[in-house]
Amino acid sequence: MRRLPWAWVLFSVVLLILLVAALVGPPAILRWDLGQRAEMLSPAETAGATNQIRSAILQAVGTVVVLAGAYVAWRQLQHNMRAGQAQIELQRAGNLTDRYTRVVDQLASTDETIRVGAIHALDRIAAEAVTERAGVVALLATYVRVRAHHGWTHSDDPELPLRSRASDIQAALTTLTRWIQPEVVPPQWLTADIAHTDLPNANLHGCTLWHVRMRDINLAGADLADADVRGADLRGTVLDGVDFTGTRANRRTWWPTGFDPKAHGISIEQTETAYSMWPPKTPD
Predict the structure, then answer these.
(1) Percent of the chain at pLDDT above 90?
(2) Which of 61, 103, 106, 185 is 20 to 30 A from 143, comparing alpha carbons?
(3) Whole-model pTM over 0.85
């Protein structure tokens, strides 16, 4: 059995008391107020005084009813606002899903301009919806692995910046690294996987590569100045000619065999406060 809200129970009790008082209370109230002087009143005076008391009680009943009506209207307004907000959120989620679906279709386009536009659309989606950021990072990491697989680039253009050879791959790298949250330890050690790719002369200046799997990547000539590679897996990665000015690493960054990060001026962070609750797993 459904319980009545306490407000309605209180309203019903107060209304009942006032109605009973309006019916049987005026004579008692008159005697209580005038005492022995009440017996000295004429029948007409007694009736008039009783009617005045009853009118005052009925006015109080009307006030209670008005207040109850205002309360009901307020509750209904709150309900309508919540329902409206839920509908807005539902529409927003539907629009986001539609946009996401269109973007995924556009990423498969043969037109590089359309693909770059789709990547920027994913950037806007990540900016608008916090819950979609991990998905955007994973999708763009997959895109980079597919588009920049080993052997995709030509041997006659190794000196060209990545943005000149493949603006979509550079845009994907820039966008996915923007939405990786530093200091947030993932359930596994991995935040994104762009391993086994050729990314020579890529621009990763100031990018967040926190716990990114970058194993066996060709990063020759890349710009990693001011980048955050804490916890990243760089084993087997080609780092010839990479700009490491201001690059941040930590004791959980995995380097290629024989690579000396300190000799390249890389700052090694010793504190590991981000791992205090749960240390990440060692990468495969």
Answers:
(1) 49
(2) 185
(3) no
* Strand 192-193 versus strand 212-213 pairing type: parallel
Q: Tell me whether residue 151 is in a domain.
A: yes
What digits encode the pLDDT tens for the residues 122-147?
A: 999 999 889 889 999 999 999 999 99
Residue ranges of the alpha helices (H) in the chain? 6-34, 43-107, 112-128, 133-147, 162-165, 167-178
Integer Cα distance of 231 and 269 in angstroms: 11
pLDDT at 33 over 70: no
Classify the C-alpha dihedral 76-78-84-90 as positive or negative. Answer: negative
**Gap between the Cα atoms of 2 and 4, Å rounded:** 7
Residue 175 lies in a domain: yes
Structure-block tokens of residue 221 = 């000539």
269 sits in which H/E element: strand 267-269
Give the closest residue to 198 by CA, choosing from 229, 157, 249.
Answer: 157
In a domain, 75, yes or no: no
Distance CA 215, CA 232 (A): 9
Annotate 13-29 with b (16+ C-beta within 10 A) or e (fewer): eeeeebeebbeebbeeb
